[in-house]
Amino acid sequence: MNKFFRLTGGAVLTLWTALAMGAGKESNMSDTWNKLTPEETRVIVNKGTERPFAGEYVKTKEPGTYVCRRCGAALYRSEDKFDSDCGWPSFDAEVPGAVLRKTDADGQRTEILCAHCAGHLGHVFLGERITPRDTRHCVNSLSMRLVPLADSSNKFERAIFAGGCFWGVEYFLQQAKGVIRTTVGYTGGRTKNPTYKQVCSHTTGQAEAVEVVFDPLATTYENLARLFFEIHDPVQLDRQGPDIGDQYRSAIFYTIPGQKETAEKLIVQLQAKGFKVATKLEPAGAFWPAEAYHRDYYKRSGKQPYCHIFTPRFGSQ
Ligand SMILES: [Zn+2]
After folding, report:
1. Quick check: helix, strand or coil at residue 172?
2. More confident residue, 175 or 299
3. Could you give the residue numbers annotated as active site?
4. Ligand 1 mean position to 143 CA, how many Å?
């Protein structure tokens, strides 16, 4: 909410406002929230705390994404969960943009809340030196629901976008509403399981890309594809600003036929506005996740993307 993006022309607006503009209409989202049990209400609405070691996720190690039990927004990933022995599920990082921090009513601790519905999650503690990130999100199990990785393919849809350096593309897409998880990686080329060094040598044909898993009940492929066209410059061929070469090409790798049609429709809209779109549409093939140090790059470094900027291109359509 407090992230601002400079537009061409100097105007400033929040990404959320920008996304709402792109989405066109936004219904009253509270209508779509899950109905809570009295126990869940006590924690999520009335900021209660469940008993230590009593929650269902205290010891859980199953891979997946923890979503808000009330609104379904992605909050934490299993990779960031660690055993703190404190009696509540502990994470040393949140899904970027998913968690708000607020000084607790006790004036001492820092409360954490779901950024989408403001539901109470628990508290965050710094300086305990338990993990290298030195952060412990202490979260009530009742505030979350684990969506196991194995179930993701049934409920969620997958999209793959390539638009220059994957750090910047991921930075924006991972903050979009309805996005459950993002993965930076390589796709569209010949070399299997390439390294970043191999990709940079321009011999693999692989493009830097971002795989997005999203909840079709919370957003649409069109919303995300539209955002993709507005966070990179789709008229640049085999480059994105200072990054030059086919690894930086603009491409959409569609995972189901309907995605291709949606992308074609958006490209026609851009062409009608005079954009000579260089974006290629290709069927999705193997996607090779990139090395761990590329993941959440801007979130971890605290820097701003150098080559991606939110620029409205569709007007008010
Ligand atoms: Zn929520």
Report:
1. helix
2. 175
3. 138, 165
4. 8
Cα 75 to averaged position of ligand 1 atoms, centre (Å): 8
Query: Residue 21 domain-assigned?
Result: no
Please check whether residues 232 and 143 belong to one and the same domain. no
Q: Are residues 161 and 291 in the same domain?
A: yes
Residue with tokens 């968690």: 99
What is the per-residue pLDDT across 219-254, written as a single tens digit (0 to 9) for each? 899 999 999 999 999 999 999 988 999 999 999 999
Does one domain contain both 190 and 120? no
73-79: list long-range contacts, CB under 8 Å, 24+ apart.
Answer: 73/98, 73/114, 73/115, 73/116, 73/117, 73/177, 73/218, 74/98, 74/179, 74/180, 74/181, 75/99, 75/114, 75/121, 75/139, 75/144, 76/137, 76/139, 76/144, 77/181, 78/146, 78/149
Question: Does the reported pTM lie above 0.70?
Answer: no
Distance CA 101, CA 114 (A): 9
Q: Find the 230 Cα to ligand 1 centroid distance in Å.
A: 27
